[in-house]
Each structure stands twice: as structure tokens, then as C-alpha cells.
Amino acid sequence: MVASSNFLLGMGSMDQIPASNTAVFYSLLTTSAFHLRGADEKEIDTEPNLLGRNSRAKAFTYLRKAIRESPSGEHSQTTMSATLSLVTADVMEGSMSEYWIHLSGAREMAGTLPPGRLHTVFTFLTTLSNTTFFDPPRLPWNSSRRTINLYKTLPGTLPVR
């Protein structure tokens, strides 16, 4: 199998590399760039941020190509890997605006793959998604009786005595 990194090192051509492999490569570069940027970086035009956004765009391009070329064929596990890597990239980027789209696509792909590690990773990322509120409702911290009674009506809360 020809790796995407071979192309970067000047060995081989892009025609020899499956689009799914290249999508994984760029999605991992995306995650790495956003990791290098760090959580404290506020400037949008820093080198790691620009590299991350550019790599993500390339990952999307190659992922779309991989899905068109082989929707449930030879490279479906690699395509699923790229999709799941983009979930992680979205978390590392910080906006958390696209992960659910990738999880939805991975859910569709999971049905075409034999059970294995990718299902485990998909289940883990889905569990994190389902149990983490990105924009949780404001909880009342006021100790007034009216507020405590309101708190009792919030879903998933323990009864207040």
C-alpha cells in the first residue's frame, strides 16, 4: 500500500494513493496542527491555525472523493478512519460545529463494515457526544425556594429535599 507521506517525500505520485488514505493523512495533520496551536491561541491567522484549516479542507476534499470512488468497497475501513479522525479534529479545533455530521456519516458506514476496532472508536465518540453538553442550560444557583422548585423540573436532575 502506498502511503500519502510518500508523496510528500517525493516518492510516487498522487495517482497511486487511494483518496481514503490521503483523507486520513490530512485529517491527522489537521488534528496535529490544532493541537500545536493549543487552547490559548486566540489569533486566527497563526501558522498552526492556518495549517489546520488548510489540512481540514484537503481532508474534506479527499474524503468526498473516497466516498464517491468506493462507497462500501475496498477502502471503506480507511474512509471510516478518516471520518472518525475528522471528529477528533473538530474537537481539537474547538468549535465543535461539525463533529455530529461526521458521526452521522460514520453511523452509515458502520453498517457496511465487519465488527471491529472502528466500531469501538465510533461507539466511544458517539458516547462522548451523547453525554457531553456543548451548550448546557443555565442551572439556577440561587437558594430561593422558587428557584429550588424550578430546579426539580429540569430533566436528569436529582430530587431536591
Describe the SSE topology.
Layout: H1 4-8, H2 19-37, H3 47-69, H4 76-93, H5 99-110, H6 117-131, H7 145-152
Helix pairs in contact: 2-3, 2-4, 3-4, 4-5, 4-6, 5-6
InterPro entries: Fun_TF (IPR021858)
Pfam families: Fungal_trans_2
Structure explained in plain terms:
The longest helix has 23 residues, at 47-69. The chain has one domain. It is mostly helical. 62% of the residues lie in helices and 0% in strands. The chain has seven helices and no strands. The chain is flat, with a radius of gyration of 20 Å.
Q: How would you sum up this structure in a few lines?
A:
It holds the Pfam family Fungal_trans_2. This protein is mostly helical and 161 residues long.
> DSSP strand (E) fraction?
under 5%
Uncertain runs with pLDDT below 50, 5 residues or more? 145-161
Biggest sheet architecture: none
Number of strand segments: 0
Strand and helix order: HHHHHHH
What number is the mean pLDDT? 77
- Rg over CA atoms, rounded to whole Å, is 20 Å
Distance between the termini: 63 Å
What structural category arises from helix and sheet content? mainly alpha
Outline, from the CA principal axes?
Answer: flat
Range of helix content: 55-70%
| Count of separate structural domains | 1
Q: Helix count, per DSSP?
A: 7
Q: Which features does this protein show?
A:
161 residues; mainly alpha; 7 helices; 62% helix; 0% strand; flat; Fun_TF
